[in-house]
Amino acid sequence: MNRTFVGLGAICAFLSVAFGAFGAHALKKVLTTDMLANYQTGVQYQMMHALGLIAVGLAFAAIPDSRQLRWAGWFMFAGIVIFSGSLYILSLTGIRTLGAITPIGGVAFLLGWGMLAAAVYRKKSNI
């Protein structure tokens, strides 16, 4: 197990629940329907990838010292910060230019999942 990624995943999951509750209660009457939908997309992707971070951290028990797992975790974390973070800021400020960096976070998510898959398939024995 890798405590860094399990810990980051748990923190990101905690924050996802907090941000989701904030959006549902405090922002529902403040944001437009479109902006609230953007905000909720950030929350959903943050939670999915928080769980992905936990999975990466737990995979280290079966594949210790895997560089691919390490990259998977950092890509997922970067994706959360860039993808979800840009959607949160866009929703709260209305600065539409932030939408231009959101796809970079999406690419980081894809790279994270790809690295996780590569690490698992490179492992010679069953996990």
TrEMBL record:
Q: What is the lineage of its organism?
A: Bacteria, Bacillati, Bacillota, Bacilli, Bacillales
GO CC field? plasma membrane
Q: What is the protein's name according to its record? A: DUF423 domain-containing protein
Q: Matching PANTHER family, A to Z?
A: TRANSMEMBRANE PROTEIN 256 (PTHR43461:SF1)
Where does this one sit in the cell?
A: Membrane
**Membership in a protein family:** Belongs to the UPF0382 family.
Membrane topology of this protein: Multi-pass membrane protein
Entry keyword set: Membrane, Transmembrane, Transmembrane helix
Q: Which InterPro entries match?
A: DUF423
What organism is recorded for this protein? Paenibacillus validus
Signal sequence span is none
